[in-house]
Amino acid sequence: MKVNRLVGSFSAVFPSIYLFAIACLFPGAGLALEPSVSLLSSPVLIFTLVLFILLAGGGLVALALLHLDSSSFRKLHAILTHMPLAVVIVRKKDGALLYANKTSCELLGVRRLDGCYLYPDDISPEMMFDFLRPFSYYRGFRNVTEELQFSRDRLMKLKVSGQPVRYKWQAAWLLFIVKPQEPQASETMLEQEQRVFQQVLNSLSELVYFQDKSGQILGTNKAFDRFWQGRFDEGVMDEVDSFSGHNSSHSWTTAPDGSSRLLETNKTMLIDDKGEAIGTLSISHDVTDWHEMQENLKQEIERREITEQALAQRNNLFDTIMNACQDPIGLYNEHGVYVGCNESFARSLGLRREEMLGRSASELLDEEVWQNYWESDQQVMRDGLTVKMDDYVILDDGAPIWYEVLKSPYKDPTDGTVGVLIMARDVTERKMAEQQLADAIMELQELSFIDSLTKVANRRSFDEQLRKLWHSHIREQNPLTLILCDIDNFKSFNDNYGHQQGDFALREVAKVFRNVVKRETDAVARYGGEEFAFLLPNTDIKGGKVIAERVHRHLAEKGILHDYSDVAEKLTVSLGVATVTPRPHQDYGELVELADIALYQAKSAGRNCTKLMSDRVAT
């Protein structure tokens, strides 16, 4: 009965639709029957027709809603894309990124690939889901502070506001992300200083960490983090409360590669400006190689009992190394190959210890520096005497250091290998005091003995030094060498470039000459006009020739342009080298005369060359 009443009502309201549907569903029936036939009273047919109309209407409504949603999002997308705030849409159920505007891409490093939005490598959907989960039952949240760790050294603090929305028929969060205002200038400067300090710590190969008075770790360097890799408790010394002053300890541990390493840890108390203890600084050194060296030495002693005396000498050698471990110590054999050194020695040469062992010094050092060292080393090994000398180095951090170097011979009694043991001591303070004294003396002598233009010795100073050296060489019967130098075609240089440029050229030439002479006893002087002179005590004719070759080479490298020279396109010099072993009752004017003759021969030979004279014999 209920079905019949529904059919009747529907037939009364929609007769034309009903008939059209009947005709569509049953084409034959429409031709054979009249609208008023009994088909109208069929419940099944009426139910089918109602279901068809409901499905068709629902589809039309869904299409209309989809069109409205797409049109609405296109307008929203245009607004969000150009917003100055970072805006993202995140799916609620798993934290997946559905949309990100341009600002969020720049701020967070979001990428778009094949129409999909991807988080940066340091952020995952799981992290975003965990962050949003506490707000699932809220209608929104505002200004929630969150810190994102993008990398080990990059931490970004953000403020996030969110609103639940539906995006493409899915429950989602619409998030607005803002980066807080930058800190004050003083805070920024402090952070920069802290970063610089941290970078300095990170550049150290030693393992460094700080603790406060309670034993809490305040900071570490990269070497510490790389070595311990989460095992910080193993690398931290206890007894912070009872500790005072400085102590050192040794402990065996396991390196990240699985090898056993022996660490020597030095702990020092940190004191503030008021003299109160605020914590400790601990620095650990890997002394495994040193320990293994001791073990190998013990095994060698056991195997070679018959060479007890020779091994005792080796023990004394290594005892010397251990007792002087705070100073640079190096050891290389007769072939110049490093067979041992400590970290201080390697650091003084700007190298690492592992880079030096087993390698030749000629490969690691500058050629000219190595040649200077090797000459004294040959003397040590040949004469068996200890040589004392000073050396000046500049560390990697730019700090200049003076070392007092002792070179001693050594000989391995087991195989007869000879070599040189180098021990150095920092004497920078003494050298600085000496330099200050020398500067004061030089300032007093400058007016009377220094050429005001070139800042080298003047003619008066040259004559005085030549007179003194002449008499001392008569007593010692050592050779004395004089080099007279004349700048080629300097008059045409002055005439064409002007006297101001000529003065500049003289100063530059004088700088080159000062750099050529290495020994403190050697002297360079302005002899007059464009002429210079070199005084080389205890130097034979071969040594004078070496200095002359350096003068030509260094001046050519300087490359002072001289377009008006008939010798070369750059400024050149002619050199006359003379060597005499002074005899009693002989005048030093003979040395000057020989050098002048040699200089005349160099000019006659076409200039830009060197001629040598020794006791009036040209070479």
Task: Show the helix and strand layout.
Layout (H helix, E strand, L loop, with lengths): L1 H12 L1 H11 L1 H6 L10 H39 L4 E6 L5 E4 L1 H7 L2 E3 L2 E3 L6 H8 L8 E11 L2 E14 L2 E9 L6 H19 L3 E6 L4 E4 L1 H7 L3 H4 L10 E9 L5 E12 L5 E10 L1 H16 L4 H16 L5 E5 L4 E4 L1 H6 L4 H4 L4 H4 L2 H17 L3 E8 L5 E12 L6 E9 L1 H22 L9 H18 L3 E8 L2 H8 L1 H18 L6 E6 L2 E7 L3 H18 L14 E8 L8 H16 L5 E5 L2 E2 L1
Parallel strand pairs: 21-22
Antiparallel strand pairs: 1-2, 1-7, 3-4, 5-6, 6-7, 8-9, 8-12, 10-11, 11-12, 13-14, 13-17, 15-16, 16-17, 18-20, 18-21, 19-20, 22-23
Helix pairs in contact: 18-19, 19-20
**How large a portion of the residues is in β-strands, by DSSP E?**
25-35%
Overall pLDDT level: 79
In helices, the fraction of residues equals 40-55%
Q: How much is the radius of gyration in Å? A: 45 Å
- Major beta sheet summary: 6 strands, mixed
Instruction: Give the termini distance in whole angstroms.
Output: 142 Å
Q: Looking at the structure, what is the overall shape?
A: elongated
Number of strands: 23
Strand order of the largest sheet: 19-20-18-21-22-23
Q: Which stretches of 5+ consecutive residues score pLDDT under 50? A: 1-37
Number of separate helices = 21
The secondary structure category is: alpha+beta
